From TrEMBL:
It comes from Microbispora corallina. Coiled coil: none annotated. Residues 461-495 are annotated as: Disordered. CDD domains: HAMP, HisKA. Its EC number is 2.7.13.3. InterPro entries: HAMP_dom, HATPase_C_sf, HATPase_dom, His_kinase_dom, HisK_dim/P_dom, HisK_dim/P_sf, Sig_transdc_His_kin-like_C, TCS_sensor_his_kinase. This is histidine kinase.
Length: 495
């Protein structure tokens, strides 16, 4: 198939596109098959029941007549309103005695039951008389010996076949009831499916009204907790997330344009001055300044790409990460500047991307060193099913009102601008995005002095980490002096 188009078969092309109609047709077809089978069974049972009742009655009338016969006389048969045809026939097919309705007629049947099966029933049809339902009873040999000197005699008791059996009336009634039943099933299915799909139609109508410019609308939620109710609630949650994402993207785009506007404007001004006043402007200084501005622009763009990638793409290839070893490696890497002390519980493991988590820890340590007065302390602990990494400095701290603002993209406090004028303001935003991508959190908590950044990640319980080959027992100390650097990673700029 070209273009990925599905080829519809001849059967599917004949079916209606409406789910309601398809369910109704399917239910009607199943009902037709089931009710036809049931109707045929009921018809067969009714016929058998009527025939059995008639044959029992004809057999009883025949045996009663036989019981009343005497050697000196044969009494007239006692008929019933329905069983009025009785005949006594000898072995030469001569009618010896008969009821008034059967007098003058030839033998009702030529059926001669054997001695071991004296009573037999059946239906006999002829063009003149129609169909008769009769029972043939062969008289006992003892009685035959007393009455007729051993000559075989048979009594026939019959009645005309009732119309319910002689015609197709029963089949027509059964077929009519089957069709009525199929119609009721189809109507019920049509109404039930229509009622069931009514919320779906409302959801579809509301979704058709939603546009990218207005994502505030929500689909109606049924009160029931069935599949349609769950679909509506899922759709509303998806719409809420989509609205939040679009709003965030618009806000982020606005902030990006604001952050890039000033460096681009400054770069343009410098280059225009160099062209307008070639004799008054030092071109080498202009080029160096333009390169510096371009470098800052590139750094901002790189950070924006990292932030967008971390926020929108889940970590690839999650694997167990030893946070204890990772923190100690980062502490060793911070050998210059304000001293960093580590207090790491051994064997704290999480599941995630080693490079991204190392970038978060490195970012937090660099920030802490930048704002600390004399020292930075890093702790790694297990707490309530989470790995907790706390980075605390002894600087001026962060005001309570700014503890969430610092995680917003491009937000830089006054002290941060003073200490790092070339920062992009994306470091903490990237760090929080990485934490969220790992089902964790990154927050600022109260501290007696300075700022305390706390990273929480779900623990990975896979047993203690394997000890490095050749490493002596007790190397996993408090000060993180493993002396080995972790894998190379992408640079993430800090705030």
């Amino acid at each position: 198939m070209e273009g990925g188009c599905a080829v519809r078969g001849p059967l599917s092309s004949l079916l209606p596109r409406s789910i309601r109609a398809r369910f109704t047709i399917a239910a009607a077809a199943l009902a037709l098959v089931a009710l036809t089978v049931i109707g045929a069974g009921v018809d067969y049972s009714i016929r058998n029941m009527i025939e059995d009742h008639i044959y029992k009655e004809t057999g009883r009338v025949a045996t009663d007549w036989i019981a009343s016969m005497r050697p000196d006389r044969i009494p007239p048969p006692i008929t019933t309103p329905r069983i009025d045809l009785l005949q006594l026939v000898d072995s030469r097919q001569h009618v010896v005695a008969a009821s008034a309705a059967a007098a003058g007629r030839p033998p009702l049947s030529t059926l001669l039951p054997p001695t071991d099966d004296r009573i037999q029933s059946g239906t006999r049809c002829s063009p003149g008389t129609g169909c008769l339902m009769l029972t043939a009873v062969r008289i006992f040999p003892q009685e035959v010996g007393l009455l007729w000197g051993g000559e075989t005699h048979v009594v026939y008791a019959a009645m005309r076949q009732p119309p319910v059996l002689a015609t197709r009336e029963l089949e027509l009634v059964t077929a009519g009831l089957v069709l009525v039943g199929v119609g009721l099933v189809a109507l019920t299915t049509w109404l039930l499916v229509g009622r069931t799909l009514r919320p779906v139609a409302a959801i579809r109508s509301r979704i058709a009204e939603i546009t990218v410019s207005d994502l505030s609308l929500r689909v109606p939620e049924p009160r029931s907790d069935d599949e349609i109710g769950q679909l509506a609630r899922t759709a509303n949650r998806t719409l809420a997330q989509l609205e939040e994402s679009v709003a965030y993207q618009r806000h982020f785009a606005s902030m990006v344009s604001h952050e890039l506007k000033n460096p681009v404007a400054g770069l343009q001004t410098q280059l225009e001055e160099a062209l307008l006043y070639p004799g008054q402007v030092d071109r080498d200084e202009t080029i160096r300044s333009a390169l510096s501005t371009a470098t800052r622009l590139r750094a901002i763009i790189d950070d924006m790409l990292v932030f967008a990638r971390v926020r929108n793409v889940s970590p690839e290839g999650p694997a167990p990460v030893d946070l204890t070893r990772l923190v100690r490696d980062e502490v060793v890497a911070r050998a210059t500047g304000v001293p960093v002390r580590a207090d790491a519980e051994p064997g704290v493991r999480v599941l995630g991307n080693h490079i991204q988590l190392a970038a978060v820890v490195s970012n937090l340590m660099v920030n802490a060193q930048r704002h600390a007065a004399t020292s930075v302390e890093v702790t790694v602990r297990r707490s309530g099913g989470h790995a907790v990494v706390a980075v605390t400095d002894d600087g001026d701290g962060i005001a309570l009102r700014d503890r969430e603002r610092v995680f917003e993209p491009f937000v830089r406090l006054q002290d941060g601008r003073r200490r790092d004028p070339k920062g992009s303001g994306l470091g903490l935003a990237i760090s929080r995005a990485i934490a969220l991508a790992h089902d964790g959190t990154l927050t600022i908590e109260d501290s007696p002095r300075g700022a305390r950044f706390v990273l929480r990640l779900p623990l990975f319980d896979a047993g203690p980490p394997p000890r490095a080959e050749g490493a002596p027992e007790g190397l996993e100390g408090r000060d993180g002096d493993s002396g080995r650097r972790g894998p190379a990673r992408e640079a993430v700029r800090t705030t």
